[in-house]
Amino acid sequence: MRFKSSKLNEFRLWGLVLTLLGLGVMILGTAAVLIWGDNGKIVLFIFMVIGMISVLGSMAIYFWAGVLSTSSVVLQCPECGKQTKMLGKTDRCMFCKTILTLDPEQATELPDAKEAGSPERT
């Protein structure tokens, strides 16, 4: 799995990165006016538009993460015992980063199969 945290946290991270990037670009555009005076207004306009697009993109990512969060599976992590949300077949715990799955073919252990005396799957 390529994610180092849960998928929902990854979406939120990219939303935060786009927000900070957009605000930073807008601040740099404002600095252009302070440095070059009236000649920097074109640079200010360009940087403000790029920053605004970035902030709107982050808003779309946050909205998408919220929609995904409402339809995700809530389960209890076997390692830390906290409730976490899971997207897809495999995901990571939001708190302890343990890999979680609901697909028995991708699981590394069968829970309580040996203890209950039931035959193992092959």
What are the salient characteristics of this protein?
single chain; 122 residues; mainly alpha; two-stranded antiparallel ribbon; 2 helices; 4 strands; 49% helix; rod-shaped; transmembrane
Strand order of the largest sheet: 1-2
What is the residue-mean pLDDT, rounded to a whole number? Answer: 82
Q: Strand fraction band?
A: 5-15%
Shape: rod-shaped
Number of strands: 4
What do you see in this structure?
This protein has 122 residues and is mainly α. The protein has one domain (7-101). 49% of the residues lie in helices and 11% in strands. It has helices at 7-36, 41-70, and strands spanning 73-76, 83-86, 90-92, 99-101. The strands form two sheets. The protein has a two-stranded antiparallel ribbon with strand order 1-2. Strand 3 (90-92) and strand 4 form a beta hairpin. The longest helix is centred in the N-terminal third of the chain and has 30 residues, at 7-36. It is rod-shaped and about 65 Å long. The two termini are 24 Å apart. It holds the Pfam family DUF2614. The chain crosses the membrane at residues 12-36, 42-65. This is Zinc ribbon protein. It comes from Xylanibacillus composti.
What would a concise description of this structure say?
Keywords: Cell membrane, Membrane, Transmembrane, Transmembrane helix. Helix content is 49%, strand content 11%.
